[in-house]
Design goal:
This protein is mostly helical. It is built from nine helices and two strands. The protein has one domain.
Length: about 180
């Protein structure tokens, strides 16, 4: 296997996880699942559909790369950068369209797939970089902090349209479960 083939497989795996992860909280509601998976239909909660599939598939990807002896570096830096860049790229394109025409599921899903493809191209290049000292340790800390932020803002959302679930006219998990 080559790194390019791995990234093609990763793209497919992450896209599948995005669709699956959309429903995990609904199927298994708990404090733990509320941190990793969307609890409502807000834009903010759906950003978990980028970071969680990339992180969770990252475990599978690490095993595959290690078992097939494909050379790679900076694995956790890769996870961090692809997750954050996915969210940023998605929002840069999505928000103006959303503000202009409103919600469109076909556009949202198509954009998500395109962004995941772009993120895995970015991933390919990060994994090929020379080893960056302390990058993985710093990245792990930042990934944990991102999930702490997601967890906090799930239970204490800002009253802003990004956090508003327009389908139920609520913010966050507290109002969602009432």
């Amino acid at each position: 296997m080559t790194l390019k083939k791995d990234k093609i497989i990763s793209t497919i795996g992450i896209i599948i996880l995005c669709f699956l992860f959309h429903f995990i909280y609904e199927w298994l509601p708990s404090t733990l699942t509320s941190i990793f998976f969307p609890v409502n239909e807000s834009i903010w909660e759906h950003m978990k559909l980028f970071i969680s599939p990339i992180c969770f598939y990252g475990i599978i990807d690490y095993i595959i790369l290690t078992k097939t002896k494909v050379p790679f570096n900076n694995f956790l830096l890769n996870i961090l950068i692809t997750s954050i860049s996915s969210i940023i790229i998605y929002l840069i394109i999505f928000l103006p369209v959303y503000n202009l025409i409103g919600e469109n599921m076909i556009f949202s899903i198509s954009l998500m797939i395109i962004v995941i493809i772009i993120s895995q191209i970015i991933s390919y290049y990060i994994l090929r970089l020379n080893h960056i000292k302390y990058a993985n340790i710093i990245s792990l800390v930042l990934i944990i902090l991102i999930y702490i932020l997601f967890g906090y803002l799930t239970y204490h959302p800002i009253h802003n349209y990004i956090f508003l679930d327009k389908h139920h006219n609520i913010y966050g998990i507290t109002e969602y479960n009432i």
